[in-house]
Write a structure and sequence with these properties.
With 153 residues, the chain is an alpha+beta fold. The protein contains 4 helices and 7 strands; from the N terminus they run E-H-H-E-E-E-E-E-E-H-H. 29% of the residues are buried.
């Protein structure tokens, strides 16, 4: 699955996280707990196992969204599509282990009647939401990491 390159609103972001890959993956794919660490998500509930074809319902930015998992490659990639208020979204997350860090990249496209009517507003919304989500993921994943004291070395 890929995002829609012709959609009126497309955004992407990337962040380096100083945490184990398995930790970052587990946090991002534990959909039921998104609202615990991501202030942009009011609630989320996966209906069934984390597998291709599973549906999850969530609320973000005041919109109730129904999403379907389209791809999963454990610790490497997860992708879903979603529908909310006259919009269709495609969202892809990739995870790459680089040295002591995990580089997380996300890409999303929005299409439908309101993204076509208000493309600038939709792009600005995505340009705000994706970096905030990435930063929240980074903070959550790094929260359990203890860095050595400078004085102890």
């Amino acid at each position: 699955m890929e995002i829609d390159p012709q959609a009126p609103a497309i955004a992407e972001g990337k962040i380096a996280i100083n945490a184990p890959l398995e930790t970052v993956w587990r946090i991002q794919t534990d959909i039921d707990r998104w609202s615990e660490w991501n202030s942009k998500v009011q609630r989320a509930r996966l209906e069934g196992p984390l597998t291709v074809g599973s549906v999850f319902r969530w609320k973000s930015g005041g919109a109730s969204i129904v999403s379907t998992i389209e791809e999963i490659e454990p610790t490497r990639r997860i992708a879903w599509t979603g529908r909310a208020m006259g919009a269709r979204a495609a969202h892809i997350w990739t995870f790459e282990h680089r040295g002591d860090e995990v580089v997380v990249q996300t890409r999303e496209s929005f299409d439908g009647w309101w993204p076509r009517l208000l493309p600038g507003l939709t792009r600005r919304m995505l340009d705000t939401m994706l970096p905030a989500w990435l930063q929240s993921l980074k903070l959550r994943a790094e929260a359990g990491i203890r860095l050595p004291d400078a004085e102890a070395s």
